Amino acid sequence: MAKMTLEELRNLRDTKKNDLRKRDAEGKEIQVIVGMGTCGIAAGAKVTLDAFITSLDENKLVDSVMVRQTGCMGLCHSEPTVEVVVPGMPAVIYGRVDAAFAAEIVKKHIIGRELLDNHILDRPAADIVG
């Protein structure tokens, strides 16, 4: 491996600190939960997850929104699925969330406090996913 300059080491440190800040849950009331079960990953959930992180970075929301992963939500027919939890609003699960729709969720739901009716799903009954 080539030697790194002091400036390159500082840039690497800052990048890693920023990455760790994104994962820190302290003080973050808004949550974006991406379904990363096998069905979600096969449908493109990794791209969706990356799109949320990028959009939150662009909108300077890294310190107020926590993005995390979960397993299958039981809505395999509508993957990738994403649950959005914003205080003062109902928790919502969106289906068929691609990169473009992830950016729209950030702008309209998280920033604008507006539900996006065209992708909202209902949770499956407890006896189905039990």
Could you describe the 3D structure shown?
The protein is of the alpha+beta class. It has one domain (about 25-130): Glutaredoxin (3-Layer(aba) Sandwich). The chain is built from five helices and five strands. It has helices at about 5-25, 40-45, 45-60, 100-110, 125-130; strands at about 30-35, 65-70, 80-85, 90-95, 120. The protein has a five-stranded mixed β-sheet with strand order 2-1-3-4-5, covered by helices on one side. A hairpin with a 6-residue loop joins strand 3 (about 80-85) and strand 4. The chain is globular. The chain starts with 5 loop residues before the first helix and ends with a helix.
Offer a quick outline of the entry.
By secondary structure, the protein is an alpha+beta fold.
